[in-house]
Amino acid sequence: MKFKFRAAPENVRTVRELTGAVLISWALRHLMEPAKLVVSELFTNALHATPGKDTFLLFKQEITSISIGVWDSSPEMPVMGACDLQGESGRGLYIVAALADDHGAYRVGDPNGKIVWARLDL
């Protein structure tokens, strides 16, 4: 499943709600809270990388897991930097790493950009 969103702060709540609806439709309510947190972090990273531009929210259901990805047009790959506990940002990828069973990022060429993703096992 693929959904297009403008990278805007008001859409963080929308992508969280959509994530919940997708998981309910897949009868995976038990993954709803971690998935919502993961999608919030991935989308917020895309928002910071490409403010005001289009992003795509991607969901894939497999036999033993689900994958959530966010495409954005920035060529810059995400980096888990030093985490400042006093800072306003910088913890998103650590949260994704803590909640997901696997995660990563890769560049894509059509359209140009990257996909940052996380996998949650069932």
Radius of gyration: 14 Å
What's the pLDDT, averaged over the residues?
A: 92
Strand order of the largest sheet: 1-2-3-5-4
Separation, N- and C-terminal Cα atoms? 18 Å
Strand content: 25-35%
Secondary-structure element string: EHHEEHEE
Biggest sheet layout: 5 strands, antiparallel
Question: Would you identify the regions where 5 or more consecutive residues have pLDDT less than 50?
Answer: none
Describe the structure using short key phrases.
122 residues; alpha+beta; 5-stranded antiparallel sheet; 3 helices; 5 strands; 34% helix; globular
Q: Could you characterize what this model shows?
A:
By secondary structure, this protein is an alpha+beta fold. The protein has three helices and five strands; from the N terminus they run βααββαββ. It has helices at residues 10-25, 32-49, 92-99; strands at 2-6, 54-61, 65-72, 102-109, 112-121. The chain has a five-stranded antiparallel β-sheet. The two termini are 18 Å apart.
How is this fold's topology laid out?
Blueprint: E1 2-6, H1 10-25, H2 32-49, E2 54-61, E3 65-72, H3 92-99, E4 102-109, E5 112-121
Antiparallel strand pairs: 1-2, 2-3, 3-5, 4-5
Helix pairs in contact: 1-2, 2-3
How would you summarize this macromolecular structure in one to three sentences?
The chain has 122 residues and is an alpha+beta fold. The chain contains 3 helices and 5 strands; from the N terminus they run βααββαββ.
